[in-house]
Amino acid sequence: MRSGGMLPMLDRWLASLNLDPAARGFQVVPARLAGSLSPELPALVIPEPGASLTALKERLLEIYPSATPVKVIGGEGTAPAATTLGALDAFPGEPEAIFIDSRLPEEVPRTFRALEHIVARLRAPDGCPWDRQQTHQSTKPFLLEEVYEAVDAIDREDWADLREELGDVLFHVLFQAQLAREEGRFNLGDVLETVNTKLIRRHPHVFGDVKVASIDEIWANWEELKRAEKGEAGASPLAGVPLAMPALAYAAQVFHRLRRFAIPAPEADRFLQVAAYRLHDLEAGIKDPGQVLGELLLALALYAAAREVDPEDALRQANRRLAAAVEAAVRMGTGLDPGKLFDPA
């Protein structure tokens, strides 16, 4: 492979690196595109004349670890200088190019490809025996647990924990895709294609020329596009709302669907009245307590949704107070104090 007269320096760079691009492949990108490199191919990055190497280093650190070996190519007649990515900005002068050799996926842990490789390796015949035993069904509890842990980190505003939990959620997404690939159902590329094309299709006001005047109009367009995609014209407004959702969240989602489909619904105070009636029934013991309690919770969930309050999140925050009260009772050797759970006002 020869660059000819178009890029006369390229031949010199390749010769100084003893790199045969026909055998190994390689990529050449300007510094501004350094964040799009594929670490599995050797790379030549061309710095911008007069630009700081610090900015280029920061772009490359989005992909490669700081200790990654690099070679700095100077002018003609000089051999490439070896250094590390972390020390790149200490190089004197203005290099013509920066060379980074190919890396194994596990050597670049900041990349999506690394996680994809690791998941496939765990499932390989010589991978992890436990991971190889898992199925879509057996991993459902783990996926749910990791999502809940991510939600918990958000509630606590613990951003370091959220970073870790999002990684765990991402691992389970790739694990499910790997299982499906092995079964011949679909692969990760199919998953990405589905979500990317769906997001573009359902945001014509962003990626197309549709004009919208309000958030309500965006929601209306979204629902119309969704029904058209699934051939659900005239279908139930509950289509796509999974019954496996947490019960309070399901009730709230059903109420929101009523509004999106312009179906008349009672005002919030009406649900509060129903809750009061059901509370009276519980106190009087005149009906099946399980049924009455379910209707009481349903009325409260719908009341919350009508007031634009997320009942699932409201109960989750109250459960935080419950957990704190239990911990306090254990520390103090006392019983559970209801005053720690409920506002006396």
What report would you give on this structure?
The structure is a single chain. The protein contains 14 helices and five strands. With 345 residues, the chain is an alpha+beta fold. It is elongated. The model is unreliable at 1-6 (pLDDT under 50).
**Percentage of helical residues?**
40-55%
CATH superfamily of the domain at 8-105: Tetrapyrrole methylase, C-terminal domain
Mean pLDDT: 90
Radius of gyration over C-alpha positions, nearest whole angstrom: 29 Å
CATH fold-level topology of the domain at 8-105: Methyltransferase, Cobalt-precorrin-4 Transmethylase, Domain 2
Largest sheet: 5 strands, mixed
| Proportion of beta-strand residues | 5-15%
Describe the strand arrangement of the main beta sheet, using strand numbers.
1-2-5-3-4
- Quaternary state reads single chain
The CATH C-level name of the domain at 8-105 is Alpha Beta
Low-confidence stretches are 1-6
Q: Could you state the order of secondary-structure elements as H and E? A: HHEEHEEEHHHHHHHHHHH
Shape: elongated
- Our measurement of the CA-to-CA distance between the termini, rounded to an integer number of angstroms, reads 80 Å
- Number of extended strands: 5
The tally of helices reads: 14
Q: Structural class from helices and strands? A: alpha+beta
The CATH architecture of the domain at 8-105 can be named as: 2-Layer Sandwich
